[in-house]
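User: Please predict the structure of the protein below. I'd like the answer in structure-token form so I can feed it into my own downstream comparison script.

Assistant: Understood. Taking the following sequence of 139 residues as input:
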Amino acid sequence: MADRHPLFMPLILVGGLIFGFGLGFSHMARPEVVLNFLLFEDFGLIFVMFGGAIVTGLTFFLAPRLFGRAPLTGDAFERRLKSFDRNVLIGGAIFGVGWGLSGICPGAAYASLGVGNVTILWALAGMFIGAYAQGYWRS
């Protein structure tokens, strides 16, 4: 952590600000919009996810070719593969149930605070408690 570029943390903050602004601007930080997507009534979320996937895909394709190493950390670009196993399947199912019940995914839940959705704090508290319980159970 000590050998990181001094701009590492500020750039992470800027990235988060852009991410949150994009979610708010596209109305994806509103649980009712996400629920309408899950009920197959509004497909705007597909375009937002597709836009994010294009930018991410281009970055993951071009960055190693242009820089060779991560500019701010100096780390080598490498893929970390996670095998598809029982834990991924069960964890994904539990995540999906939580997303469906709360009506919003974790990233959008934080952005939802920015658009005035204070009741989302209940879902955020549930996420923290669930993550803590899983970590406690695993250890």
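That's the full token string. The mean pLDDT is 86.
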